[in-house]
Amino acid sequence: MEYIRITNIEDPLFAKLHKLLGEVFPPEEVLEFELWKEPLEDPGIRVFVAVNDEEVVGATEYRYYPQWNIAMTDFTIIGRPGLSIGRFLTKNREKDLHELAQENGNTLFGMFAEIYDPYVKEDFDFGGVKPMNPFVRREVLSHLGYKKLDFNYVHPSWKNDGEAVLGLDFCFMPTDETISEIPSPLITDFLKDYYSVLPNKPAEWVRMIEDLEKIENVKLLPI
């Protein structure tokens, strides 16, 4: 299996990746094909696919932010069972991120991720791919060290229609497992930057940010 970065919308592997995205994620979570051009060419956005026998069987997108020394996992896809794709993607992503942090003169502080909460919303099918079952994914991410940030999370729809998407938790995986809370400004600064590409923010999202700005730290809770 190969770990290959995609940096161009014309790459034949991207068409296979986008097809996989549409099969696995709900429509409001998938950016339109043509709108991927700029993100793929952005050196700060890292899109890698797991290629087995010339087929895209998994993928991950993530970013490293040197100004905060943190990363964000945009998505991880396991497209086929029985190939240890999840571990393959995780280990390669981890190696890449630690190298990026070292180049920045740091040890990676941690990584954000949005995690579906199937105990609140149970209609996530993920294309019928069993390893993508949200109960399984949530437990795996807990094993990796992710913790739920202690606030009610609202996600702006990637359709940029101003709709609020619920049913997710915003989580953080600290490199130092003894960390029990992180600064609220780190969360708000990051979310403002991350979603700056979407001008139509839901009112619920705006209120969430305003509430976070009133507190100093946010606790990390088990998931």
Q: What are the defining features of this structure?
A:
223 residues, 6 helices, 11 strands
What does this entry look like structurally?
The protein has 223 residues and is α+β, with helices and mostly antiparallel strands. The protein has a domain at 2-146 and 168-177: Aminopeptidase, CATH 3.40.630.30. The chain has six helices and eleven strands. The chain has helices at residues 12-24, 37-41, 85-103, 134-144, 184-194, 203-212, and strands at residues 2-5, 45-52, 55-65, 70-78, 110-116, 147-149, 155-156, 164-165, 168-174, 181-183, 217-221. Strands 1-2-3-4-5-9-6-11-10 form a nine-stranded mixed β-sheet, with helices on both faces. A hairpin with a 7-residue loop joins strand 7 (155-156) and strand 8. The chain is globular, with a radius of gyration of 17 Å. The two termini are 31 Å apart.
Question: How are the elements arranged and paired?
Answer:
Blueprint: E1 2-5, H1 12-24, H2 37-41, E2 45-52, E3 55-65, E4 70-78, H3 85-103, E5 110-116, H4 134-144, E6 147-149, E7 155-156, E8 164-165, E9 168-174, E10 181-183, H5 184-194, H6 203-212, E11 217-221
Parallel strand pairs: 4-5
Antiparallel strand pairs: 1-2, 2-3, 3-4, 5-9, 6-9, 6-11, 7-8, 10-11
